[in-house]
Amino acid sequence: MTAPLIVITGANSGIGKATALALAKKGNRIVMICRSEARGLAAQQDIVEESGNKQVFLELCDLASHASIKACSIVLHQQYKSIDILINNAGGIFGAHQLTEDGLERTFGLNHMGYFLFTHYMLDLVKAGSGKRIISVASIAHKMTSSIPWGDLQLRNIRYRQFQAYALSKLYNIYFTKILAQKMLDEKTGITVNCLHPGSIYTGFGTSGSKAFAKLVQVGGRFLPKPKTGAKTSVYLATAADLSTVTGAYYAHGKRAGISRLAKNKEAAQRIWDKSLELANIESYGVIESV
Question: Which of the residues 89, 126, 140, 156 has an alpha carbon 20 to 30 A from that of 107?
């Protein structure tokens, strides 16, 4: 019997790498989606050596680029007939307002649209899989925002605050989970869609933020759990038999957890979904040109 195929974005460091290692140790086939070839290859070698599992593969993709995601999709469709579990993990925080090549604020473009687009291009492969789970790493940070800048989602005309941008992106991760979960139920695909807060973990996260933020993370992070702990909820959502029919849920520390009032707003979730379709010029989510 062929081992399950698990695709993990941002798998070369931090929680993503720890998740890939834990799942490789369980005998799964792992596809690491990484932006840097050098860091990706080094992480791949580490995981193979530590897990004893040679079925750990690397594909390159910049999750902040629609063109790169589309190109990666072509490669993955050529390499694999199905994906059993997709884990959207890649993300970041940025110290200054930056735009992606697609003209999106970088936090929005990577943390939200990266999940939205990568899943769009992978959805037919997940439908063909046997595990049929989509897991996205959100954050308790979603509770740190109380309103959505509807007229300026790319934060061009307001004072840029890195944590506000991050909190909004994590709120959108929950919206993405809720809408996609219902869509998969309506279409009777058998795919479950859940998200999680990994906990406050010491990783390389924050180095792309402002110097002050990066220093704060470095100093405070010494007292926080390591990535192995942060990966536990992702691994649980990917492997627990009792979660095979649970969908649209938010977890923290291995348990279902509460979300903010704003995160429960179905109208806002649908508006972000519709706007994301518009920004990506997608007519039908999950339907792509034959590759």
Answer: 126
